[in-house]
Specification:
Radius of gyration: 18 Å
Distance between the termini: 42 Å
Number of helices: 5
Structural class: alpha+beta
Shape: globular
Order of helices and strands: EEEEEEHEEEEHHHH
């Protein structure tokens, strides 16, 4: 499998996917693509897909001067489809007269998320359709920022995004420590309650 750059031009050295092969096998006619759990953390499953985020390469945007932008959290995610969802995606592409090349091996999608911690928004910077080896089939870069507080509780994104943000809040030092960027002097002196990930609104858990 080819390595893909994690947000080329944003974090030029980090990678979205592991260099280890993605394993896929057939189970009663359904292609099962295994997600490497040493890189991805499972968040939730629905009848149509399984949602994961890349906790190894979640990190802060790096500014031109090499310092971390603590207001901008970048997170690669994947959703692996079942056969019904695969058929649905293919049918919609047919209706829109889009290319179906390689879509007989469609397995899921990758969403590359940009969290603006200052303004409380999330944006799918790039959405990529993936085959069963995680090769890119097509991509969409039309995503716009949306306010986290406006996502309905019953929306699948609600729990997915809040879980990612809760993990980032609990593991902020880990994220900073393994980053290729460095803290600016001002950010290094911030009190804990002034660190953006600690200040921002995170939607409450559904049962709260």
């Amino acid at each position: 499998m080819d390595c893909k750059k994690f947000f080329a031009g944003i974090l030029s050295a980090a990678m979205i996917f592991s260099t280890a092969p993605v394993s896929a096998y057939e189970d009663d006619g359904e292609i099962i693509t295994e997600v490497p759990t040493d890189i991805y953390m499972w968040v939730q499953s629905t009848p149509r897909g399984n949602y994961w985020f890349n906790y190894k390469h979640a990190g802060y945007k790096i500014k031109d001067d090499g310092t971390l932008d603590l207001n901008t959290l970048m997170v690669p995610t994947v959703c692996m489809y079942d056969n019904i969802q695969i058929d649905d995606v293919i049918q919609k592409r047919k209706w829109r007269r889009l290319s179906l090349r390689g879509y007989d091996r469609l397995a899921g999608r990758a969403d590359y998320l940009k969290f603006d911690l200052k303004n409380g928004t999330v944006q799918v910077v790039e959405r990529v359709d993936l085959d069963d080896t995680w090769a890119e089939l097509d991509k969409d870069t039309s995503g716009e920022p949306i306010e986290l507080k406006n996502i309905p509780v019953k929306d699948l994104r609600y729990n997915f995004y809040r879980t990612i943000l809760e993990w980032a809040r609990k593991n902020n030092e880990l994220i900073i420590g393994r980053s290729r960027g460095v803290l600016s002097e001002a950010d290094g002196d911030l009190p804990l309650d002034e660190v953006p990930i600690n200040k921002m609104f995170i939607p409450p858990a559904v049962n709260d």
